[in-house]
Design goal:
This protein is mainly α. It is built from ten helices and two strands. Belongs to the ABC-2 integral membrane protein family.
């Protein structure tokens, strides 16, 4: 009729209103899922946002850590590498280089994963992470993937710089070990960093974890020595340190030998063990994130 208001059939109105009007699109009922599969677009968007965040200041987030770690190589090579000292059949610089590369990767994976989420909590922008249509697994996946990306970039920068240092040979004997232990080490520290950012109430808490947990475990994991030189009690302690298996396994990928065990099967067992450890830690981190602990008031 002429006195009836004109309605656009493409207009979206809330569900429950004008239900009798055919052809009128409606909002789904409140709480009903619209995205029934993985939100790949949202996951990619958050991942790219995190990568661009640290890549904008790549001098501080990639090159500065690489140069700082390179100084360890310079200092220890000068102090302990004189006289053509041999460790595991290679000169000291070649022995210590792979350990320093993966150590830098792990430390920066932790730093990236522990910063962004915590800064959102402290600055009141955590809602930007929690409100988008992302599941807890998608949110965690994007954040962890970005942290691992930074770790890989730092590792590549370190390898590039060390390639120019006299006496260092980065010939790869087992590419699978380099890839597996490098990625598993980055994943392990990314998960720890993300879990730390959920737990922490201020940046001092994260700094304490870095200073009193991450740094000691990294430096006391056989980066600069083989654990066979230690007393039996300290060898046992070293073998309880997961960082030891990451560093020694990564070194095995370059040198073809390590102090994990006398056979390649021992290295394979270590690789599988790291995979299981990361799986367990990932489940724990997911459950903590899903609970809303320290995230929801």
């Amino acid at each position: 009729m002429a006195d009836q208001p004109h309605r656009d059939p493409q207009r979206i109105e809330p569900a429950g209103t004008n239900d009798a009007i055919p052809g009128l699109r409606k909002f789904p009922p409140q709480g009903e899922a619209v995205i029934h599969q993985v939100n790949w677009l949202g996951l990619k968007t958050l991942y790219m946002k995190e990568v661009r965040r640290f890549f904008k200041v790549q001098t501080q987030t990639i090159w500065a850590p690489a140069v700082t770690t390179l100084l360890f190589l310079v200092i220890f090579t000068v102090a302990m590498g004189r006289g053509d000292r041999q460790v595991l059949g290679v000169n000291f610089a070649t022995f210590v280089a792979p350990g320093l590369i993966v150590m830098g990767m792990m430390q920066n994976a932790f730093a990236n994963a522990s910063f962004s989420f915590l800064s959102g909590k402290l600055q009141g922008t955590i809602i930007d992470f929690l409100m988008p249509p992302l599941t807890e697994a998608e949110l965690m996946g994007a954040m962890i993937a970005a942290a691992m990306t930074r770790a890989v970039l730092v590792g590549c920068a370190l390898a590039l710089l060390m390639a120019f240092w006299p006496g260092v040979s980065l010939h790869v004997a087992h590419p699978w070990a380099v890839a597996w232990f490098g990625l598993m080490g980055a994943l392990f520290l990314s998960l720890l960093g993300f879990l730390s950012s959920i737990w922490a109430d201020k940046f001092d808490h994260n700094a304490a974890i870095t200073s009193f947990v991450i740094a000691p475990l990294s430096l006391l994991s056989g980066t600069f020595y083989v654990i066979d030189n230690l007393a039996p009690a300290f060898q046992t302690v070293s073998r309880l340190n997961p960082f030891f298996y990451v560093i020694s396994g990564f070194r095995f990928g370059f040198l073809g030998q390590s102090d994990i065990g006398s056979t390649n099967m021992a290295v394979l067992h270590s690789a599988l063990g790291l995979g299981v450890l990361n799986l367990v830690l990932g489940v724990v981190t997911y459950l903590v994130l899903r609970s809303g602990w320290k995230l929801k008031s």
